[in-house]
Hints:
This protein is of the alpha+beta class. It is built from 8 helices and 14 strands. Helix 3 crosses helix 4, helix 5 (168-183) packs across helix 6 and helix 7 crosses helix 8. The longest helix is centred in the middle third of the chain and has 16 residues, at 168-183. This is N-acetyltransferase GCN5. InterPro entries: Acyl_CoA_acyltransferase (IPR016181), DUF4081 (IPR025289), GNAT_dom (IPR000182).
Amino acid sequence: MTRILPRVLQWSPSAKHIRRVDEGQPRILGRRDTAALVALLDRDPVANIFTRSQVDLHRSAVPDGFAHVLGVDGEEGLLSACWVGANMSPTNMSEEQAQEYALMALATRQRFASVFGPARSVLAMHEVLATGPQSIFDVRENQPLMEMRSNPQGIVRRQLRPAKPSEFDKVLPASAAMFEEELGYSPLDNGGSFYRGRVRQLIRQGHTLIDMDELGNIVFKVDLGTVTDQVAQIQGVWINPIYRGHGLAAGYMAATVDYALQHAPIVSLYVNDYNHAAVRTYEKVGFKQVGTFATILF
């Protein structure tokens, strides 16, 4: 059990900035920190794919909108970092640093949807965030982080293709069903405009793959949810319940890896440890565990 730090803040939050007042405390990164942040993230491109993709998108350590990136400096440069937006994602931090970041996040009075990343950091943050005003819905403590760097061998591929924009009305229910199975509620509650936009975006990018039966029903759906020059992360894996239990998953996942390797040299995913069937399928295809993630859901 990590030690919870006393909630005595050594910084002063304001509407736009949180000023660093002590060496080793988290500070908001600026544009001049971009190169140092990229170097830090690229030490582990698989674990840090989310924040790296955001830096690529905004071409800076300073994203547009309300999100920001926190960092802690050391004698030789940036030691650790944390993406803070609708979600939080830690990078390369000790348990004590993770608690400092969590305290700073609480000081902003910002609300979060989730925290995800390396398990040691996320679970240390959980000890602090659990004392905050937001109720925690669930904690996924053990999520194997897996990767592949070559095409699967010895597996017959199932047919997959990128979904077309005209097929949005077919893809959306499959995506929402996957989300609801995973989290227990529908992303389309209250309209779900953000989720609908996300599904459209993935389709436009060619990052949603599907297979359909002769009646036009989606049999299998998967997303390349996050892609950088180094890594393509598989997300949103869903098989129509009608077709489950027929040994189709490995063939579909092998085809997904083939497609993902056209976008990046490493293919990754993370999965709940209790989803034994999925873990077995990924191992059969050739994925190897390279780390452990955890996720806090609010």
